[in-house]
Membrane protein
Amino acid sequence: MTIFRHLVRLIVAAVVILIVAALVPGFQVAGFWSALLAAVVIAVLGWIIEALFGRDISPFARGIVGFLVSAFVLYLTQFFVPGMRVTIFGALIGALIIGLVDLFVPTRSRVIRPREAK
């Protein structure tokens, strides 16, 4: 993945975080730069959790475990990002909305390679 694609993903994540902050009570972000920093922190925390516990118990996992881990990561992020405040309820609803967005906006490329000619 190129640097440009990483930057685009972080910017899209920051915009989603701003939308969640506008919709969910108990989920506040001071502005775009705080949301961008939150996107970076969420990515790093997700990577750490995935490295420690595996893909089945990570924010990227589907099901109730992935949902609860995502809510925990959102709640934990507020302690690393100035200008972000999240209640437990806000983290749960925010994880639900972010999960729904992730369902409709794929984050992994799905490239189908043609068969090699014989």
In short: Residues 33-105 form one domain. The two ends are 29 Å apart (CA to CA). The beta strands are 27-29, 84-86. DSSP finds four helices and two strands in the chain.
